[in-house]
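Subject: sequence -> C-alpha cells, single chain

Hey, anyone have a minute? Need the predicted structure for the following. Not urgent.
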Amino acid sequence: MLQNIMTAFGLKNSVTDDGTGGFSSRRSYPRRGCDQCVGFLDGKAHPVLDWSPGGLRVFADPRPLQIGQEMEIELKFHLRDQLVNVKQRARIVRKSTESVSFQFAPVSNDIRKTFQTVIDDFNAREFSGSQA
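Reply:
Had a minute. Here:
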C-alpha cells in the first residue's frame, strides 16, 4: 500500500530495496549523533549535534556565518582510552535558527582512518556493553 501511495505522489524512484528501510538518501554517509564530540569554530567550542565523514551539524548561533563560507573546524572525539583531534576545512551548506551544517572539503586518507577509528571505538563500546 505504501508503494502505491508513493507512486501516486511521484516518489517511486525514492523507494529502494537496499536495506535502508525503503528510502534512499542524498547523503554519502549516514549521520552519527551518538559519539562524544565537540566542534571548535574560530576557537569557540560548540556541541556537535551529528556528524559523518562528509560533514557535521553543530549547535551554534548562525547569524555571524554565511552560507558558502569556508572555515577550519577542529573536532575533538572522546574515545574509551584517548582523545582524538581532527582539523578539517569545511563549507557552510545550511543554517537554521540554532544550528549550522558544514560539508567537509575532501578529506585525506589519514583523516578518513581517524574517522573510522572513532566509529570502530563506538561499535566496540556498544558490543562490550551488550555483553555485560
